[in-house]
C-alpha cells in the first residue's frame, strides 16, 4: 500500500472573497487582488517537490466557477452572460460565493478509507457535503462526479454519495480525519468533530464548528471500519475559537507519528494514552503547548497544516508552509520535532502563499489516498504526476489563467467563458470524461 497525495489544481477564479467566518486568513485577506496563475503554479511546484521526494502524487481538477448551475438554482435565468450580469447587479455577494475556487483544498473533497482497513476490502470514498458554508457546499456534486470518474472501477472502489444534507451531517472531509498505523497493528482512524447535532456538548463561542459527530460516525459505518479501530475525538472549542476551523489546522499524523497543539482536541492526554495502547511502543507524538507555540502563531503560520510524508527509506519528512519558518515559535517547534526521537528527519518549507492567504496550507491542498498496486492500475485517468504531466499542466495554466483577479473582475461575463474553455480542455488532458455539468448533452 502506497500513499498518493491528490492535490487540487487551483482554479482560474482563485480569489479572496472573505467568505469563511472562523478562518482568520480568509477574513483578513478578503477583497485583496489575487494571482490565479501564480497560485496554480505554486501548487504545481508543490506537487513537483513531493513527487521528487519519492512520494506518490496525483491531481484533482478544479470546478466550473462562477457556478452557473448554482446561480440557476437560485432563480437566475437567461444566457450564461445574462446570468452573470444580473447576478453582478442584484446579488454581488452570491456571485462572490459562486465564484470561489475553494475546490482547490482537496483535503475537504472527501474522506477515504484504504482497503486494508475496510471489512469488504474496498477503498471507500465519501465526497464531503461541506454543508456548513454555501460556497463550499456547491462543490459536492461535481466532486462526486470527478471521484466516480477516477475511482470508477467497482471491483476495487466504492464511491458513496455525499452524506445527506441538513446541518446534522455536516461533513468537511479528510481535514478532520487522521489515519495512524504501526507495523503489526491495524490502522487507527481519528474522525474528529466540532459539534454534535443531537447531544448537548459545549461548543465554540465565537466561530462556527463545522463537522458534526454524527457525520463522523456515519463515515465510519459507511466505510466499513472496525469500530474498535475508530476514535471520535472532539476538536477543542477554544481551538476553534482561536481559528482552527478544521482539525488539520492544529494536528497532523502519519503512520506512527502524530504532532498536535494542545488546543487541537479535548483531553489530548487521554487520546494519546488510547493511541499508545492501540499502536504500541513505536507510536510517537509531539505536543505543542500554548506557552511554547501561542495558538495565534500556530493559526497564522500553519506548522500543523504540513504534509508528513513517509519517504522511500522509511524516514519521514515534513512539507511545511514558508510562513512556519518565518514565525519563530512555529519554526522552533518544527526543529524540536526533528531533534526529538521521532521518525521525522527533515522539514522543507514551500511557498504556497496564494493559498495560505485563504487559510489553505500544504495539507489542505491534498487528499491522501492509499492504494495497492492493483488499485493504482485500476485507475485509467491520467491524473498521476509525471514531469510530462507537469509541463502540460503548467502550459495549460499559462494559456488560460489571468495574472491578477480583482473583486470587480468576478463580474466580467467573459470569466465564466474562459473557465469553461479551460476546464473542457483539462478534462481531455487528464482523460476524465465529461465530469462537468456544462459538458452534459
Ligand atoms: N483546512 C483545510 N483542510 N482546508 C482549508 C480550507 C480553506 C477554505 N477557505 C475558503 O473557503 C476561503 C475562501 C474565500 O474567502 O475566498 C475554507 O475556509 O473552507
TrEMBL record:
It comes from Pyxidicoccus parkwayensis. InterPro entries: AstB_sf (IPR037031), SuccinylArg_d-Hdrlase_AstB (IPR007079). Keywords: Arginine metabolism, Hydrolase. The keyword Hydrolase applies. SUPFAM superfamilies: Pentein. Its EC number is 3.5.3.23. Residues 17-38 are annotated as: Disordered. One of its GO terms (molecular function) is N-succinylarginine dihydrolase activity. It comes from the Bacteria. It is an enzyme of class 3 (hydrolase). This is N-succinylarginine dihydrolase. Pfam families: AstB. NCBIfam families: arg_catab_astB, PRK13281.1.
Amino acid at each position: 500500500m502506497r500513499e498518493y497525495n491528490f492535490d487540487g489544481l487551483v482554479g482560474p477564479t482563485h480569489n479572496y472573497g472573505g467568505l469563511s467566518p472562523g478562518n482568520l486568513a480568509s477574513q483578513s485577506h478578503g477583497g485583496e487582488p489575487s494571482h490565479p496563475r501564480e497560485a496554480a503554479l505554486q501548487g504545481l511546484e508543490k506537487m513537483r517537490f513531493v513527487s521528487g521526494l519519492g512520494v506518490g502524487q496525483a491531481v484533482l481538477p478544479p470546478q466550473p466557477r462562477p457556478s452557473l448551475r448554482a446561480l440557476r438554482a437560485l432563480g437566475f435565468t437567461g444566457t450564461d452572460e445574462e446570468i452573470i450580469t444580473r447576478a453582478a447587479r442584484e446579488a454581488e455577494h452570491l456571485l462572490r460565493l459562486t465564484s470561489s475556487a475553494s475546490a482547490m483544498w482537496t483535503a475537504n473533497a472527501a474522506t477515504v478509507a484504504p482497503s486494508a482497513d475496510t471489512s469488504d476490502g474496498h477503498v471507500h470514498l465519501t465526497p464531503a457535503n461541506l454543508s456548513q458554508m454555501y460556497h463550499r457546499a456547491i462543490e459536492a456534486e461535481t466532486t462526486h462526479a470527478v471521484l466516480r470518474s477516477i475511482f470508477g472501477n467497482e471491483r476495487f472502489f466504492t464511491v458513496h454519495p455525499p452524506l445527506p444534507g441538513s446541518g446534522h451531517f455536516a461533513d468537511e472531509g479528510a481535514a478532520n480525519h487522521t489515519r495512524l498505523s504501526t507495523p503489526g497493528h491495524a490502522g487507527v482512524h481519528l474522525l474528529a468533530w466540532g459539534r454534535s447535532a443531537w447531544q448537548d456538548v459545549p461548543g465554540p463561542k465565537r466561530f462556527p464548528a463545522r463537522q458534526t459527530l454524527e457525520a463522523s460516525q456515519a463515515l465510519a459505518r459507511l466505510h466499513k471500519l472496525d469500530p474498535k479501530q475508530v476514535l471520535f475525538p472532539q476538536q477543542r472549542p477554544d481551538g476553534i475559537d482561536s481559528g482552527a476551523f478544521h482539525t488539520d489546522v492544529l494536528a497532523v499524523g502519519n503512520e506512527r507519528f502524530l504532532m498536535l497543539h494542545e488546543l487541537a482536541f479535548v483531553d489530548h492526554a487521554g487520546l494519546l494514552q488510547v493511541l499508545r495502547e492501540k499502536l504500541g511502543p513505536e507510536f510517537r507524538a509531539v505536543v505543542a503547548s500554548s506557552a511554547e507555540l501561542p495558538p495565534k502563531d500556530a493559526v497564522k503560520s500553519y506548522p500543523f497544516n504540513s504534509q508528513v510524508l513517509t519517504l522511500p527509506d522509511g524516514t519521514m519528512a515534513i512539507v511545511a508552509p514558508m510562513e512556519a519558518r518565518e514565525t519563530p515559535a512555529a519554526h522552533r517547534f518544527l526543529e524540536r520535532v526533528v531533534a526529538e526521537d521521532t521518525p521525522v528527519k527533515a522539514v522543507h518549507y514551500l511557498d504556497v502563499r496564494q493559498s495560505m492567504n485563504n487559510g489553505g496550507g500544504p495539507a489542505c491542498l491534498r487528499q491522501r489516498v492509499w492504494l495497492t498496486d492493483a488499485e493504482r492500475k485500476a485507475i485509467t485517468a491520467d491524473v498521476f504526476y509525471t514531469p510530462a504531466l507537469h509541463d502540460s499542466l503548467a502550459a495549460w495554466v499559462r494559456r488560460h489563467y489571468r495574472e491578477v483577479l480583482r473583486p470587480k473582475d468576478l463580474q466580467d461575463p467573459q470569466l465564466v467563458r474562459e473557465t469553461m474553455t479551460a476546464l473542457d480542455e483539462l478534462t481531455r488532458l487528464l482523460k476524465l470524461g465529461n465530469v462537468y455539468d456544462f459538458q452534459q448533452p
